[in-house]
Structures are given as structure tokens and as C-alpha cells.
């Protein structure tokens, strides 16, 4: 039968979220299993603004496993993709052999087709591998009827992906077993825990493609004494304090720990040899603006955090988010896309006071920020019921419009 006429037996679609770490993961103790040198903690971002959608299909006529990412077919033999596929199939086989009833609807020897897209531009430099691997693992697990703890499978695609397997506030416990079975993510509070918390992603213009996190952290582990100190002597205590601050919805404590942890992560990058620089001048101006804003009010109303790139992620409470957006517009005036500058959740209009402006006292820097994505805490991966959302057609190939 020609491939384009195939009639796919099983087709399903899932979505998964992006997460932003407030206690950073940086450094592995095992490269193959992706085991970290410290625990980390993240906030899951809402999928209405940022998500990956993945369709998986299985059919007895498929000749090989295939995958399309954002409209282009990519090599399925990538070792991390293979780890996830192998692990899910192993769990499916185990379940199959454990079960009395072997009337499994899916034949495990059948090949799969996978198609995945992001609802945000990859060019924006927002980490997409976490949402991507979480979505892949979640969808494959549904396809093969695998249940139970899946974060340790997603972890083998990309470390931070294990945290995208849950919504709300999530910790990745580093574990200490050499087989990685205890290195798992868990939700510490659901998305509804802190409804006042708001998140702004400031997409910073940049021409350079930064050093990828996998390579970056390898060099840091080899060369940075600060990273070793951080993992052993700073993060364990900081994790406890962060869990406590989130539990009590203590914004000031949460914000302070978030900024300090981002700063220490970037300090370890500077301590890496040769050094790695992820922050650019605009990132540093944003940090400066946040500190001046907080000191004007005499308490912490906004916090920044930066991953392996120049984009800033800002946390505020809903009563302050409108003012912070105005501040960004004032000091990073958008020239061309005024209307499209703020995407996502709406914020209330606020007029900046003259006192605040003189306290900030910075020169405006045009075009430093391309746009802002306004979002909040969101849920974990989900199954999409609407079959018109499938990214693959009944022939098992990507639909034309993706
Ligand atoms: C700075 O999860 O992308 O975003 O495990 O090699 O795929 P690999 O790395 P990745 O690293 C993320 C690093 C970070 C911090 C974090 O998300 O905790």
C-alpha cells in the first residue's frame, strides 16, 4: 500500500508546558542518564501562552519511526529521542507482560510517527526542549497505555523536561542512586496555589546564538569551583527556603531567592573556563531597573531570572504587573511594533509617577526588547480531545498547514 494512503489505527494529540527554574539546574553527574549535581525548582508557565503540541500515530504499515519538529523532518536517531522511545517501549512491554489481560490494543512492534509544534517562535530563544520532551513522553505514554511516574523518562530527553511533566510549582529531586530511579520531579503545589503571581517574559533582541546548555554545563562541571560549591553548599539550603516561601506565598522571600539563584548561576558561567556569557547589556539593564524599582518602594515588588540566554523572566504580583509593563515601555521603548509589544494576558493601564521615574533615572534604550509575553502559572501536560487538532493526517503524515 503506498504510504500516503495508509489508514492510521491510533492517533492522539497532547500538549505540554514550558517551565522556568527559580532554583537552577546546571551540571550533570551522569551525562547518559541526565542526572543532575543539584536539585532544582521551577514554575510551570500557562499553556495558553506557551506550549508544545505533539501528535503521535501508530500503524502496522509504518516502515520506520519518524519525527517532524516545527514543520521539518528531523533525525529520529538522535540519542536523546532514542532514550525516550526505548524507555517508554520498555515500560509498555513490562506493563503488557505484568497484565493478566493481554488484549493490548497496540502492537508494540509497530512503528510510530511523531509531529510536534510550538505555539511560540523558536527564534525567540525560549527554551523549547523541556516542553518538547515532556510532550513527547506524555503522548507516547498515552499511546502505549503506560502509566505511573514519567518524569524520569522525560528527564532522559532533557533534564529540565522532567519538571514540565507537572503543573504549578515543581521540584526535581536530584536523587543519589546511580541508576537514576530516584531522580524525579514532583509537584509541590498545584497551579491554583498562588493565583496572584504573574509572569512576564521579556524577549530581548540578540543576534548571537548562545552556547547551548548541554555543552555549557559540561564545561562548567569540568572547570568551575564555584559550581561545585553552589551544588554542595548553597542549593540544598536554598531549596528548603524556596519551598517554604512558595508554601507561604511569601513574595519577597520568593523573589529574593529567585534573583540570587539566577545571579549565582550566571556567576558560575563566568567562573567557567573559558567563561560563558548569557546576559547581554539589555539583560543587565533590566536587572538594574528591577533593583531600582524595588528600592524605590523599599520592598521587593518584582524579581528577574535568566536561563541560558539574554531573555528576562519577571515575577510580580497582579497588583503590580501593569506598572512594571509601563516601566518596560518607558525604558525600552518599542519603535515599530507598539501594538504587538505586549502579548498574552492583558494588564491594567497605569501611569508612572514622576517620583518613580526619577528614582529609576535610566536613559531609555530603544529596541532592546522585541516584545513581552504576559502569562501566569499553569497546568501540566494534557490530552487534546478535539481530533481536528491532530498534526498528522490519517495517512500518518503532517497536515499541509503546519
Ligand atoms: C539554565 O535541561 O536544557 O535552563 O539536560 O542538557 O538538556 P540538558 O539541559 P537543559 O538545561 C536547562 C538549564 C537552565 C536551568 C534550568 O532550567 O533549571
TrEMBL record:
Domain Mvd1 C-terminal residue range list: 199-384
NCBIfam families hit by this protein: mevDPdecarb
Domain Diphosphomevalonate decarboxylase-like N-terminal, first and last residues per copy: 16-185
Protein's gene: Mvd
Organism annotation: Polypterus senegalus (Senegal bichir)
Presence of the UniProt keyword Glycosyltransferase in the record: no
Pathway: Steroid biosynthesis; cholesterol biosynthesis
Chemical reaction(s) catalysed: (R)-5-diphosphomevalonate + ATP = isopentenyl diphosphate + ADP + phosphate + CO2
EC number in record: 4.1.1.33
GO MF annotation terms: ATP binding; diphosphomevalonate decarboxylase activity
Name used for this protein in its record: Diphosphomevalonate decarboxylase
Cellular component annotations (GO), alphabetically ordered: cytosol
Function: Catalyzes the ATP dependent decarboxylation of (R)-5-diphosphomevalonate to form isopentenyl diphosphate (IPP). Functions in the mevalonate (MVA) pathway leading to isopentenyl diphosphate (IPP), a key precursor for the biosynthesis of isoprenoids and sterol synthesis.
Keywords: ATP-binding, Cholesterol biosynthesis, Cholesterol metabolism, Lipid biosynthesis, Lipid metabolism, Lyase, Nucleotide-binding, Steroid biosynthesis, Steroid metabolism, Sterol biosynthesis, Sterol metabolism
Family in the record: Belongs to the diphosphomevalonate decarboxylase family.
GO BP terms, alphabetized: cholesterol biosynthetic process; isopentenyl diphosphate biosynthetic process, mevalonate pathway
Keyword Nucleus: no
